Amino acid sequence: MSQNPPNLRPDIAPKAQIRDVARPGQPTIGMVSLGCPKALVDSERILTRLRAEGYAISPDYAGADAVIVNTCGFLDSAKAESLEAIGEALNENGRVIVTGCLGAEPEYITGQHPNVLAVTGPHQYEQVLDAVHGAVPPSPDPFVDLLPASGVKLTPRHYSYLKISEGCNHKCKFCIIPDMRGKLVSRPAHAVVREAEKLVESGVKELLVISQDTSAYGVDIKHAEDRGHRAHITDLARDLGSLGAWVRLHYVYPYPHVRNLIPLMAEGLILPYLDIPFQHAHPETLKRMARPAAAAKTLDEIAAWRDTCPDITLRSTFIVGYPGETDEEFQTLLDWLDEAQLDRVGCFQYENVAGARSNDLPDHVPAEVKQDRWDRFMEKAQAISEAKLAAKVGKTLEVIVDDIDEDGIATCRTWADAPEIDGNLFIDENTDGLSVGDIVKVEVDEAGEYDLWGALKS
């Protein structure tokens, strides 16, 4: 049992869990999925198609006839991690197909690893399948190869990511995601709700709604209504909330209409949790980022959200050391954080990313200054987190059980905690009757900087 580390990359997906067992002679594909939850969903869709065609899925290289590496291209450090994973797969297996965000730069990959079998970009599912067919022909057995109704899932059985759209219409100078994944393309609302229904029917207890810009859902299709479901985030949240599972919203851009979601949280229809990427607080820094520069109004919005739903948990991510960030601008960010009192906070040190417009901005911040600012920012965020968690001691909270180790210690999450990126609540006694995926009530008896400890309520 360990406390949640404060320097965990705040965009990372849980490690893919593969539970497939191959029949004798069945062609097998390995999968390495890197990057964010949106990439994990892409991996699930690819594997679902392959599983339907008769392939088995392997969690390692050794037993696989070929390996797919789903890459991340968000930061240069993530690109380096992807190249390393491709190299490892080539060394261990030799037959590697590359897809994902870094696949949008095929020459970058083949320049380092010329022996890969194919390179495809993000959500190019058909091209991935074609590459797999070329490397390992399918051999389905319709009497044996049964596909679960919910498809292949790479998360634990009790929670699942639900991707509602692709792409993004914003032009933030530090980000190349729109270049890799394109403009906003929303899924029809009825298709999203039907997928959610299947997941809940298969035993999923928590739906984590994701996209590049969740608040903008439906804008591109003019909030079309079809088969009784309207493509607007407020309507979709209401529809999903009626299914009886926890519904958690991620990547919610702070548009004014977000305030319409808060009453749904106050009613208990969806979890009182908002993941909003504020990125910074100083208007000049936000302007250089090409983001709305209304930090003061944001504080007013936060106050209004808390007035409507006092139990709301606010998570956000920030960038420190952005080109041109002065000491004064950084201090404004610290002061804003003091006032906003966000519950969960992640922080990146600014990195140049090939193709990003921010690379050409003047006055880049030295590495040692970025590190110092990150340390100071996280120290303040940690103090806020510690105080907020201390206030929960003695309260009874509803939690979902994620894991029970061999010593009987249960790792759980409260409404305020998303998988991997937030904290945990640990139960270290009387867990004999618990199972992974259970939702139970716990009385909190101890708090740390990021995590809680508690006892089951009888």
UniProtKB/TrEMBL annotation:
**Which molecular-function annotations from GO does this UniProt entry contain?**
4 iron, 4 sulfur cluster binding; aspartic acid methylthiotransferase activity; metal ion binding; protein methylthiotransferase activity
Cross-referenced SMART domains:
Elp3
Q: What is its main location?
A: cytoplasm
Q: Which residues form the TRAM domain?
A: 390-458
The cross-references to PROSITE patterns, in alphabetical order and at most eight, read:
MTTASE_N (PS51449), RADICAL_SAM (PS51918), TRAM (PS50926)
Cellular component GO terms held in the UniProt record = cytosol; ribosome
Task: Please give the biological process terms from Gene Ontology that the record holds.
Answer: tRNA modification
Bound cofactor: record note: Binds 2 [4Fe-4S] clusters. One cluster is coordinated with 3 cysteines and an exchangeable S-adenosyl-L-methionine.
- Indicate whether Ribosomal protein appears among the record's keywords: yes
Could you tell me which residue ranges the MTTase N-terminal domain spans? 27-137
Q: What is the lineage of its organism?
A: Bacteria, Pseudomonadati, Pseudomonadota, Alphaproteobacteria, Rhodobacterales
Which Pfam families does the record cross-reference, listed alphabetically?
A: Radical_SAM, TRAM_2, UPF0004
Can you tell which superkingdom this protein's organism belongs to?
A: Bacteria
Q: Give the protein name, as stated in the record.
A: Ribosomal protein uS12 methylthiotransferase RimO
Q: Where in the cell is it found?
A: Cytoplasm
What broad class of enzyme is this? transferase
Q: Which InterPro entries is this protein grouped with?
A: Elp3/MiaA/NifB-like_rSAM (IPR006638), Methylthiotransferase (IPR005839), Methylthiotransferase_N (IPR013848), Methylthiotransferase_N_sf (IPR038135), NA-bd_OB-fold (IPR012340), Ribosomal_uS12_MeSTrfase_RimO (IPR005840), rSAM (IPR007197), rSAM_horseshoe (IPR023404)
What is the role of this chain?
A: Catalyzes the methylthiolation of an aspartic acid residue of ribosomal protein uS12.
* EC assignment: 2.8.4.4
Cofactor(s) needed for function:
[4Fe-4S] cluster
> Gene3D superfamilies from the xrefs?
Methylthiotransferase, N-terminal domain, Nucleic acid-binding proteins, tm_1862 like domain
Gene symbol here is: rimO
Is this entry keyworded Ribonucleoprotein? yes
Q: Which reaction does it catalyse?
A: L-aspartate(89)-[ribosomal protein uS12]-hydrogen + (sulfur carrier)-SH + AH2 + 2 S-adenosyl-L-methionine = 3-methylsulfanyl-L-aspartate(89)-[ribosomal protein uS12]-hydrogen + (sulfur carrier)-H + 5'-deoxyadenosine + L-methionine + A + S-adenosyl-L-homocysteine + 2 H(+)
Keywords of the record: 4Fe-4S, Cytoplasm, Iron, Iron-sulfur, Metal-binding, Ribonucleoprotein, Ribosomal protein, S-adenosyl-L-methionine, Transferase
Record: residues binding [4Fe-4S] cluster 1: C36, C72, C101
Task: List residues binding [4Fe-4S] cluster 2.
Answer: C168, C172, C175
Span-the-membrane segments of this chain are none
